[in-house]
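Lab meeting, item 3. Inverse folding demo.
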């Protein structure tokens, strides 16, 4: 039932996205019909809709070898096949990062494998994904469990190569053979570097992606895995083993990866203490067994520095067996139910919060600006209606006095509009300075100098100094960018404040730009680069390979951070003044319309009655339009519907009552 809850909540999430897409498309059509949009805003809506359609949920499973990662995936997602699909046995199984998802564009399920020799090329895995010719692709026979198991065995295959070849590939270190009198001449290495599996599982078809990782602290571990793939996941299941507790190698992975993301609230982290069945001692009574498991959970929590309720004791092997045998008691005892409920209640709702906040920031402000214009029109229509009604039966002198007051108001407003244009010119110059600071040309010059210095360096120390110099320069540039952004934000705020105070635009606020997200990413990347630079493995790995890896993974990632910052800054610069400019234009239009109406009344007093009827209709129509816009805004802000608790939602016997929660997820794209 817990698994069904996860599936049900995922369905709710997908229905919510579909509803949001329909409301955004309805808004696009409405804006076009009422001639209130702009090409920039239309593009933003198109990109938001496209992003919602492409959106998925990624759960990564990370651990040292032999902690039961693959068995956990089998138990949670593939138990209905009544056997293990992913290779899962004692010792090292998963040899390469494996992504499980559903490819809607493919004509059949498949497994694609990237040869290990691709490590010799200057391309990232993300780039390889855009070039299908580099992958070995095989269609999956999903109707045959035996054929599936056979196909999935590919991801654990190894081959024997010479020591020289292993060194070239970055898969050899003398440290790993220090216990031997003489290092071997041949080494067993993985056949494949990365695996992509498109599989028609119901959860995967709803947008779930599972990332199964090999040991992250192993020699040859892909830096791109920790730089890009893990941070992009919505949750990490960090798996430990109950029979060993948190070992030194476990703690290395926890400190370098899982804890770092958890502390920065970049992804949610579920701590899974697997293999609790090793503590099921038949010579002890049930209470003693429960106490032993809880003690292990408490010690694990203390070692990791987390709350004890954040540790989920699980037996993936017994959970898989329980599902296959339909044994509810064993399933509850395995602790798998509580883990699955945490995935459904916390991960999905947190993911929705992130997506909704992203939509609100991109589309919500746009709709709010449209609403503000409608409010301006509605208020203007009411004022015109009041003018007409007050003029009925009044003398020409009263009419002239009213027109003079309105013209004086118009003159003051026109002067402020002129000041607005001057302020926009000041902002434009500041944005040019920001654009110059964010320019990729200067960063590319830094990259070229760093590459030249590192390639020409004859010492490991000199090569590491080049890495440090690059990131110091990149961070200095980001600091300058933040300073330029602060100046631009002050100019924008002052312009908005002036019209808010002098002309009553109190319901419109500027969307200020921030570089916090990019600065945080750059700091984390810098930390990873420092670990890479100071790693004993880096010191012992062939120099040309180290330089290649540094540029393919870390430098390219840093450039991507600046590229996205540049794009976001340009997009912000194009749109930040649009709401106010539109509101100013609308106020000018309303003043002119009021004067025009009064002029008509002055020329022909007989038209007052007709004008009143026309304005009453206009006011009602604007009121209806406001209701439509408010409905769209309400839909965008609506939370994910809650589903009823399932009977199996109780905590397993091995746990105390715990709040079902996960560390808050990071802010989007």
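The presenter then showed the designed sequence:
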């Amino acid at each position: 039932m817990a698994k069904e809850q996860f599936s049900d909540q995922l369905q709710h999430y997908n229905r919510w996205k579909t509803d949001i897409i329909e409301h955004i498309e309805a808004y696009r059509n409405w804006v076009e019909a009422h001639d209130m949009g702009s090409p920039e805003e239309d593009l933003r809506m198109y990109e938001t809709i496209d992003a919602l359609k492409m959106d998925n949920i990624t759960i990564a499973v990370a651990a040292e070898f032999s902690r039961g990662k693959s068995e956990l995936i089998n138990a949670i997602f593939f138990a209905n096949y009544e056997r293990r699909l992913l290779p899962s046995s004692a010792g090292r199984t998963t040899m390469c990062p494996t992504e499980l998802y559903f490819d809607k564009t493919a004509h059949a399920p498949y497994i694609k494998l990237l040869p290990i020799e691709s490590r010799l090329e200057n391309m990232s895995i993300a780039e390889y994904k855009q070039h299908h010719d580099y992958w070995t692709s095989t269609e999956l026979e999903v109707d045959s469990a035996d054929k599936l198991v056979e196909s999935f065995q590919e991801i654990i295959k190894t081959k024997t190569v010479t020591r020289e070849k292993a060194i070239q590939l970055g898969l050899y270190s003398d440290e790993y053979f220090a216990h031997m009198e003489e290092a071997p001449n041949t080494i067993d290495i993985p056949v494949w570097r990365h695996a992509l599996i498109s599989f028609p599982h119901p959860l995967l078809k709803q947008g779930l992606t599972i990332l199964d990782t090999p040991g992250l602290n192993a020699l040859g571990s892909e830096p791109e895995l920790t730089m890009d793939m893990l941070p992009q996941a919505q949750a990490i299941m960090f798996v430990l083993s109950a029979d060993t507790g948190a070992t030194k190698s476990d703690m290395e992975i926890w400190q370098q990866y899982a804890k770092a993301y958890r502390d920065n609230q970049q992804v949610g982290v579920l701590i899974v203490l697997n293999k609790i069945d090793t503590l099921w001692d038949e010579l002890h009574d049930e209470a003693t067994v429960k106490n032993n498991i809880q003690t292990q959970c408490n010690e694990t929590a203390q070692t990791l520095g987390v709350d004890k309720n954040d540790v989920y004791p699980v037996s993936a092997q017994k959970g898989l067996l329980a599902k296959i045998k339909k044994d509810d008691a064993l399933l509850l005892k395995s602790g798998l139910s509580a883990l699955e409920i945490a995935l459904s209640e916390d991960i999905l709702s947190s993911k929705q919060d992130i997506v909704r906040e992203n939509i609100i920031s991109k589309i919500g402000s746009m709709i709010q600006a449209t609403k503000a214009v409608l409010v301006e029109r509605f208020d203007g229509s009411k004022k015109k209606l009041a003018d007409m009604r007050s003029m009925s039966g009044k003398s020409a002198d009263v009419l002239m006095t009213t027109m003079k007051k309105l013209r004086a108001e118009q003159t003051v407003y026109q002067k402020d509009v002129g000041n607005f244009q001057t302020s926009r010119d000041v902002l434009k110059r500041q944005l040019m300075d920001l654009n110059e600071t964010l320019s990729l040309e200067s960063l590319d010059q830094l990259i070229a100098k760093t590459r030249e210095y590192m390639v020409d360096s004859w010492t490991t120390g000199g090569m590491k100094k080049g890495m440090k110099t690059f990131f110091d320069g990149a961070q200095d540039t980001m600091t300058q960018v933040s300073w330029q952004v602060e100046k631009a934000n002050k100019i924008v705020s002052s312009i908005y404040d002036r019209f808010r105070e002098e002309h009553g635009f109190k319901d419109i606020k500027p969307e200020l730009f921030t570089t916090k997200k990019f600065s945080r990413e750059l700091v984390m990347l810098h930390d990873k680069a420092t670990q890479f630079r100071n790693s004993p493995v880096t010191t012992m790995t062939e120099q040309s390979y180290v330089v290649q890896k540094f540029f393919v993974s870390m430098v390219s990632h840093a450039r991507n951070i600046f590229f996205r910052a540049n794009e976001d800054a340009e997009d912000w610069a194009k749109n930040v003044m649009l709401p106010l400019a539109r509101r100013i234009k609308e106020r000018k239009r309303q003043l002119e319309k009021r004067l025009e109406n009064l002029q008509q009344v002055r020329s022909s007093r007989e038209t007052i009655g007709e004008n009143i009827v026309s304005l009453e209709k206009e006011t009602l129509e604007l009121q209806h339009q406001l209701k439509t816009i408010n409905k769209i805004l309400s839909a965008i802000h609506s939370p994910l519907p809650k589903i009823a608790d399932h009977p199996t939602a109780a905590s397993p016997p091995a746990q105390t009552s715990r709040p079902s929660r996960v560390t808050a997820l990071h802010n989007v794209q």
